[in-house]
Amino acid sequence: MSANLVIIGTQWGDEGKGKIVDFLARDCAMVVRFQGGNNAGHTVVLGDQTYKLHLIPSGILYADKMCVLGNGMVIDPAVLLDEIKDLKSKGHFLRNLHISERAHVIMPYHKYFDELEEEMKGADKIGTTMRGIGPCYSDKVARMGIRMSELLNANIFMKRLQQIVPFKQKILNAFGKKRELVIAEIAAAYGQHAEQLRHYVCDTTTLLNRFVGEGKKILFEGAQGTLLGIDHGTYPFVTGSETTAGNASCGSGVAPCHIGKVVGVVKAYSTRVGSGYFVSELNNALGEQLRKQGHEYGTTTGRPRRCGWLDIVALKYAVMVNGLSELAVTKLDVLRNIDPLQICVGYTYRDKAVDHLPADMEMLQEIQPVYQNFPGWHEDISNCRAFAELPLTCQSYIQTMEKLLGLPVRIISVGAERNQTIVRA
Ligand code: GDP
Ligand code: IMO
Ligand code: MG
Question: What is the pTM of this model?
């Protein structure tokens, strides 16, 4: 079986994927992002440095790892250049960074449309990150997108702008948005970005497949989480791309037969940023305590994250649609001093048991959680480095997750630092 692995968020994002990718990248030759854009915020803590990565894969802190922004991504060139600058200022030279020529480019009008579409939805707004992600993916599907290869070709880029910009301007005008799109200005600004990015852009699909042929290990880094995926998430409160393991192939050009393992990252409780269904949400002091203890504020937008208990029904769905092989549980240290702990082990809808995640939004809104209580712990576990060092109640919380989800928990994270990690055989 192939040694290549995919790391996937199993909830609504911010599970700690960045930390786990950084940890597992040690044994890999390449780390690839295959979807999403700078809506993602992946934090890696290394000594006294905290890195907040939005576009660049979380393997970048190792000088010898190849890092790829795959064809399935949407890239805001100015944001990428800022991220490159920031990493360089911290001593990372990014000699092994590669950007797919097929990745789509986020344009200024995508951000305006993000704003406009949210306004149009009113009370039903998604609460997007306003980074232009959804509109950029919409244009990709409408065959109205601009890819990195077109950005690098000034003639084609201008042709595309002349075709697309008047269309976008008409819509903005029709909705009374005072946003003027000046083709010459866009061309000049993006032309500069193109020159700065040109040497990173290449045919990453061929590069990746060369690595596959040479038997070099590849790690595919998911962004967002399963329940935010456009196909399998809690639509319409989702992001613009598919976040599950299957998209690792489409978004990189590496065939499914070359992927051997899918690791699901599970936060020891649940969080969500933005609107939408969250059946185990705690709208009370306990939710506030989780937010405080877990520092649950968005890495990208700084918004407070909604907090709640672990949801086994939703997680079972993530196990199924991703074909998870094993789990990495993060932020277990955050649950300290919360006693008893609860886990949502089932749902009811109008007094009837529901054992799956329904698609119907109205039904989802009415669903009630069924909780089981578990004893908590009061010890600080952030210095534990072996499973046996964890308090027994903490061990039993992990074993309960394994039993309920039918999968082994191989990695347990007890702090943000790379070394605050327990690996089980
Ligand atoms: P991602 O988007 O899935 O990569 O997750 P984020 O980086 O947005 O959010 C996770 C946050 O939790 C970051 O601030 C991490 O530094 C932090 N973190 C990751 N793992 C742990 C852990 O085990 N314990 C604690 N206390 N913090 C963690
Ligand atoms: P990482 O990779 C958490 C959420 C937004 C919003 C919805 C759609 O750090 O886990 P978008 O801007 O993508 O159109 O917003 O998705 N969202 C995330 N929530 N973590 C993320 O990324 C997210 N990326 C998008 O809050 O609800
Ligand atoms: Mg995040």
Answer: 0.97
Report d(CA 128, CA 46) in Å as an integer.
29
Whether ligand 1 lies within 6 angstroms of the CB of 15 is answered as yes
Same domain, 226 and 323: yes
Given a contact cutoff of 8 angstroms between Cβ atoms, the answer to whether 366 and 349 are in contact is yes
Which amino acids bring their CB within 6 angstroms of ligand 2? 9, 12-14, 39-42, 126-129, 131, 133-134, 223-225, 228, 239-240, 273-274, 299
What is the Cα–Cα distance from 88 to 84, expressed in whole angstroms? 6
**E strands present in 159-272:** 201-202, 218-221, 261-267, 270-272
Same domain for 316 and 405?
Answer: yes
**Same structural domain for residues 177 and 65?**
no
Do 59 and 185 have their domain in common?
Answer: no
| Residue 151: pLDDT over 90 | yes
Domain total in the chain = 2
Does residue 134 register a pLDDT over 90? yes
Q: Establish whether 22 is a catalytic residue.
A: no
Residues 126 and 167 placed together within one structural domain of the fold: yes
Reply yes or no on whether 351 is catalytic. no
The CA 162 to ligand 3 mean position distance, Å, reads: 36
- pLDDT tens profile 257-282: 999 999 999 999 999 999 999 999 99
DSSP-assigned letter for residue 297: B
Mutate to test the pocket of ligand 2, among 239, 277, 295 (most ligand atoms within 8 A of CB): 239
Q: In terms of residue numbers, what domain contains 185?
A: 104-199
Which ligand 2 atom minimizes the distance to the CA of 131?
A: 12
